[in-house]
Specification:
The structure is a homodimer of 603-residue chains. Chain A has 603 residues and is an alpha/beta fold. The first copy, chain A, contains 18 helices and 23 strands.
Chain lengths: 603, 603
C-alpha cells in the first residue's frame, strides 16, 4: 500500500516538510493549501522538489463550501475551482479534495448538491483532474460518509469519487461496515487519523487532537479492513491536525507517522489473514539489566550497597560495574562528559527469546539501531534507541551474553528479587510517540493514562506491560511546556519490604525519602489498618495502597541526579503502581532536606 | 468583601502558595487536601504560618462521597470525617467542604442524603465545625445547586449550609437567579471560577480549563450580584483548577487572581449601584508614542526614514531619538546591554484625559508602578508595567509633557497619519492574564480570540480595543511550550498605501517583506478584483482583505530584532486586522532571504 501524509501533519516550511516525509519513507503527500500559499516556490518547482524526493503529490486540499448553493453563486464557485485546477496542473496532481459544505447558505438538497458536483467534475475532467468529495463530521447537511457517497453516486460522473476520512466516520460513531458497499474504485482517497476518545465539540476535537493511528482510541484496523475489502488501491494517507505536531521536529514526527502506518498494516494483515512483512513481535520476557550512567560511582554504589546489592563484576575492557541482588542487575557506567545530569538511566536490557528477531522488528519499525563501540572479540548485542534516548538491548533469555565480559561472581540473595518496573521520563510532547513505540516495537499493552499533580505542574503517566507483568515500564511525561524532565526510577520487587525498610532505617546514612506526617494522618482516614500496622508504616516511611486484587507497599530512596529507586512489594495480585501516593511522593521529592541543626522548620 | 483563594489554584509547595497569596493581598485561603498531605509541616505549623502571613484558613477541602450511602457504610464514612475534623482543628479552620456524592453506590434518595448529612453536621458541631455541602456538576444524583440546597434545608441543622460554586452552577446552564431564594447565612461559602465556553465533558472542563473571573465566558458579575442580595457575608473564594496555573510562577498567578477579584468587585458594584473603591477607568484616547530600544539606531532610523518618518528631536539628557510622521511618533532608545534581542518594543505612550487617575487605577489593579530615573526638573510621567514587561506611559492628551525634553521640530506630514495598532508578543501561558489586564486596567474590550497557523506552531491572537478604535492592541501568544516569543510590530495607518508601497518598491534598499507569488495566485480565486488591481497588489507586495464593512490593504517591512512595521489602510469601516493573511505573512517571515546572485532557489 502506498503511504502518504498531508503536509499539515508536520511542522516547518513546505520544503522542510517534503524533505522530512521523504526521509521517513513516505511515497506521497497531500499538499495542504496553506502550505502552498506560504511557500516562496512556484508550484512547478514544488512539483520538481517532490519528484526529486520520490514523492507523488497525491492530492491538493481542501476545496471548501462549493456545492448545494443557489444557482447564481455557482458560476463564482466554478471560477474559484478553475483557479485551483490551474494550480494543480502546475503542481502535478490530479486529485482535488472537496469537503462537504459547512456554510449557512447552502441548501439541504442532495439533488442540487449532486448536480453541482457533477458540473465541477465535468470541469475537472477537462483538466484531467478527479474530485474526491468528503463528508465532514460538521458539514452543514452532509455529515456522514454514506450520505456523501449517495450524493457521489447520484452525480454519476467518472471524475467524481468519495474521500473517506477515519476521523469524520468514527468521531460521529458511524458504523464503518457500510464502507464495503462502496466500490473500491469510487473511493478516490482514504485519509487516516486516530484521536483520543474525548467528549467535546467535534470541530475542535478534529482541529487540535487528531493523532497517528494507534495513538488514540479509534479502531482504525477495523476501518481499514473494510476499505481494503472494497478493492481500494489508493494510498493510506495521514491527515493529522495536532497542535503538538505543528511545532515538533518535523523529522521526528514523520518517523512517528510512518511507524504508525507500518504497525497498522501489520494489524490489518492479521485481520485479513494476509501476510505481514514485519518480523513477529518477540515479547520481552524480563529485565536483563538497567544501566545507570553517573559521575558519582561512590554515591550510587553506596546507595546500591545499602539496598542490598553487591558489586559482582567489573567489565573487562570498559569502566562499567555490575551490581546484583537476586535477579535484579544494575550496570554503573560513566556518564558522558557533556551530559547535563550527573546520574541518569541510559539503558535497559530486555530478555528476549530471539534477540536478533526483536532487533529486526524494531528496525523495521524505524527504531534507530545503535552502533556500540565494541572491543574485538566481544559478543554482538542488538540495541535500538527508545524515544527518550534510552538504549534498549535485546538479550538472549537463555544465555546472558551481555554478562560475559564481567566475569562476575555469584549475586547475593536478598529480599530484592528482580526489577519490578522502570519509569522513564519524557518531555511533554512525547506521550503518544512513546506509547506507540513500546506497543508496536515491544508488543507491550498500554494501561490507562493517569494525571498526577506535582507541586509545579500536572504530570501524565502511562504504564505499559506484557500480560504476564514480566516487563513493566511507566512512561512519565513532564507538564506541558516544562523544560525539566521528570525523574527516572528503577522499582525493585522485594519479598519482605518491612524487613528491608527496617534495615534501611537503621543505617547511619539516611537513604530514604522522608514522607510527610500528614500523609500518615490521612492514611488512617483512608484505610482502617489498625494502630500497630499504621505506626509501622509511618516509622518505616512505607507508603500503602490497595486495589481489588491485593495490597501494595512501597518506599523511595533519595534522588541522585535524575534517578531514584523504589522498593515495592505486591501482596496478592495488586496490579497498579501506587499512583494515588504519587502526588505526596512528588511533593516530598521537591522538599529541601531539613538543615541538620538547630532543629529547623522542616520546609 | 474578604478575598480568598484555594491553594490548588497556584503552583508550588504549600508554604510557597501561602506566601504568594499573602503577598498578593488575599485575606484567606481554602486548604486543598493534597497540598496539606504533601507538606512536611504539621497542621499546627501551617496554621501558624497562615496567621503570621495574615491569612485566615477559610476552609479545608474537599471531603468526598459521603452521603446517601447504605446505612452499613455510614459508620466508616463518619470515621473518615472524624479524622478530617481533627486535622481541621489543628489547622484552625471551622469549615469543611463536602462535595455531592459521585460514586456509583450512592442512592438517589434526598431524605437519606439529608439524614446522613445531618449526622455529619451533628458530629461537626461537637468540634465547632460547620459543613458546606456543594452540588458538583457531575454529582451522581445531586448536580444542581438548588437540589443541593433542598437537601441542606431538609437536613435542617445549623452546622450544615450550602457551598455555591459558580462553575458548577453556570457550566450546567442553571439559572443563578434562584440563588436569591437561599438565606445568605445558609450560604457558608461562595467559590468563584470562570471558564471559557467549551462544549466538552464537564469534569474535564472543570479540572483543566477553569480560569479567574473575567478570563472566561461566564457572567460572574450577575451571579455575584444574586449572592450578595441574599446578604451573604462570607469570602469570595477562587477555586481554579487550571493546568497552566499549576506550573506558572505562583506570585504572578496570585496577582492575576487578585486583580480578577478587584475587577469583579467593581463590576458588581456597578450592577448593585453601590460604590466602588476603584478610580473610574479613563479610556486611552490614542497612542502618544511607541518606544523601540535598539542596538542598531542606524538600521532602524534608516527603516523609519524609508517609511517617511523624520528624526524631529533628540532627548536633552538621554540617548533617545524622536521620529515622527503626522501623529505617529516613535522613540528610539538604547537597548539594555543584557537584552537578548537587538531591537524590541519596550514602551507605549497612551493618551489619557487624566493620566494621574489612569495610573492610580492601574496601581489599584496591581499593575507594577515603574520608577523612571529622571533628570532633575523633568516632568513626572505615570507609568506601569504590562504583563509582557512593556512599559505603559499615561500621557496627557491635552499637553504632551513627554515631548518637552525633545525640543522637537515640527513633524513632517506624509501618508502615515497615526499608529493604527500595536502588536505585543507574549509567552504561551500569558493569554488570559494579558487580556484581563488590558480590559481591567485600560477598559479595552476583547475581540474574538483567533488561532493563526505559523509554520512552526499554532499562535493565538486576540485584539483589544476601545469602541472608537483610538487604541487597538493585538496580543499575540506563542505556541504552547515554545521558547521563542512572537514578533512585535507597530502598524501605521496610511491614507494612500498604494503610493507608499510604490515609493518603497522604488528604494534601492529592499525594506518590504517578500510575499509568495502563490498568495497572489490564490487571491485571484478568493476575490474577483480585476486583473489590473490584482497585478498592482502583487507588484507592490500588498496584501488584501475584506469584511462586511470595508476593505483592508496592508504590507509588512522586514524584521529587525523582534520588531517589524506594518502599513495599513482601512477602506470603509473595515474592522479586522487582516488575520486571514497572517499564516502567509508568518511563513514569509520564516523564509530566509534569497541569496543575491546567481539567481537562487528562492527558499
Amino acid at each position: 500500500m502506498r503511504k502518504s501524509i498531508a503536509t499539515v501533519s508536520v511542522s516547518g516550511s513546505l520544503t522542510e516538510k517534503l524533505e522530512a516525509v521523504a526521509r521517513a519513507g513516505f511515497d506521497g503527500v497531500e499538499i495542504f493549501e496553506n502550505d502552498l500559499l506560504g511557500c516562496p516556490l512556484p508550484p512547478e518547482r514544488i512539483r520538481e522538489r517532490a519528484e526529486h524526493l520520490g514523492l507523488r503529490v497525491e492530492a491538493y486540499q481542501p476545496f471548501r463550501d462549493f456545492e448545494a448553493v443557489a444557482p447564481d453563486r455557482l458560476a463564482d464557485h466554478l471560477r474559484r475551482a478553475e483557479h485551483k485546477f490551474r494550480v494543480m496542473e502546475r503542481l502535478g496532481t490530479d486529485l482535488m479534495l472537496v469537503c462537504s459544505n459547512t456554510s449557512p447558505g447552502c441548501a439541504d438538497d442532495d439533488a442540487l448538491a449532486a448536480e453541482q458536483l457533477r458540473r465541477l467534475a465535468e470541469r475537472a475532467a477537462d483538466h484531467g483532474i478527479r474530485v474526491a468529495y468528503e463528508a465532514l463530521a460538521w458539514g452543514r447537511h452532509v455529515d456522514t460518509y454514506l450520505h456523501g457517497w449517495r450524493i457521489v453516486r447520484m452525480a454519476d460522473h467518472p471524475n467524481l469519487g468519495t474521500c473517506l476520512d477515519s476521523f469524520h466516520i468514527l468521531s460521529r460513531g458511524s458504523d464503518p461496515g457500510g464502507i464495503e458497499a462502496i466500490p473500491g474504485d469510487r473511493i478516490f482517497l482514504l485519509q487516516l487519523a486516530d484521536a483520543p476518545l474525548l467528549a467535546m465539540d467535534v470541530l475542535q476535537w478534529s482541529r487540535h487532537y487528531r493523532c497517528f493511528p494507534g495513538q488514540g482510541g479509534f479502531d482504525l484496523t477495523g476501518l481499514l479492513a473494510h476499505v481494503l475489502r472494497t478493492g481500494y488501491a489508493g494510498p493510506l494517507s495521514l491527515e493529522i491536525f495536532n497542535d503538538g505536531f505543528r511545532q515538533a521536529d518535523a523529522g521526528r514526527t514523520a518517523v512517528d507517522a510512518m511507524r504508525s502506518l507500518i504497525a497498522l498494516e501489520e494489524s490489518v494483515a492479521r485481520v485479513l489473514g494476509t501476510g505481514s512483512p514485519l518480523p513477529r513481535p518477540a515479547q520481552p520476557e524480563g529485565f536483563a539489566f538497567a544501566e545507570l550512567a553517573t559521575r558519582d560511582h561512590k554515591r550510587l554504589g553506596g546507595l546500591l550497597g545499602a539496598l542490598g546489592f553487591a558489586r559482582t563484576g567489573q567489565h573487562e575492557t570498559r569502566p562499567i560495574e555490575l551490581w546484583e541482588q537476586g535477579r535484579a542487575r544494575i550496570l554503573l557506567s560513566r556518564v558522558h562528559p557533556e551530559s547535563p545530569t550527573d546520574t541518569s538511566l541510559v539503558a535497559i536490557g530486555l530478555e528476549s527469546a530471539d534477540p536478533a528477531l526483536s532487533a529486526e522488528r524494531a528496525q523495521a519499525l524505524l527504531a534507530p539501531v545503535l552502533a556500540r563501540h565494541r572491543a574485538p572479540g566481544e559478543a554482538r548485542l542488538d540495541a535500538v534507541a527508545a524515544p527518550d534516548g534510552t538504549e534498549l538491548f535485546f538479550c538472549d533469555t537463555g544465555r546472558a551474553v551481555w554478562r560475559e565480559p564481567f566475569d562476575a561472581v555469584s549475586p547475593p540473595s536478598g529480599h530484592v528479587g528482580r526489577i519490578d518496573h522502570v519509569a522513564l521520563g519524557h518531555p511533554w510532547d512525547q506521550f503518544d510517540e512513546a506509547a506507540l513505540f513500546y506497543r508496536a516495537v515491544l508488543g507491550l499493552q498500554p494501561h490507562e493514562s493517569v494525571e498526577v499533580a506535582d507541586p509545579y505542574g500536572l504530570l501524565r503517566s502511562r504504564a505499559m506491560s506484557d500480560a504476564a507483568g514480566a516487563v513493566r515500564l511507566t512512561l512519565d511525561i513532564a507538564p506541558v511546556g516544562a523544560r525539566a524532565l521528570p525523574g527516572q526510577h528503577i522499582a525493585l520487587a522485594d519479598d519482605d519490604i518491612v524487613a528491608t525498610a527496617r534495615r534501611l532505617r537503621a543505617l547511619p546514612d539516611d537513604v530514604l525519602l522522608p514522607v510527610p506526617g500528614n500523609y500518615y494522618d490521612d492514611l488512617r482516614a483512608r484505610f482502617d489498618l489498625g494502630e500497630e500496622r499504621h505506626r509501622e508504616l509511618r516509622e518505616l516511611r512505607l507508603m500503602y495502597d490497595r486495589d481489588e486484587y491485593g495490597e501494595f507497599l512501597h518506599l523511595f530512596t533519595v534522588t541522585v541526579g535524575r534517578v531514584f529507586f523504589e522498593i515495592v512489594q505486591r501482596v496478592g495480585g495488586y496490579r497498579g503502581f501506587g499512583t494515588d501516593n504519587a502526588p505526596v511522593r512528588l511533593a516530598a521529592q521537591h522538599t529541601p532536606a531539613p538543615s541538620p541543626a538547630p532543629a529547623g522548620d522542616g520546609d
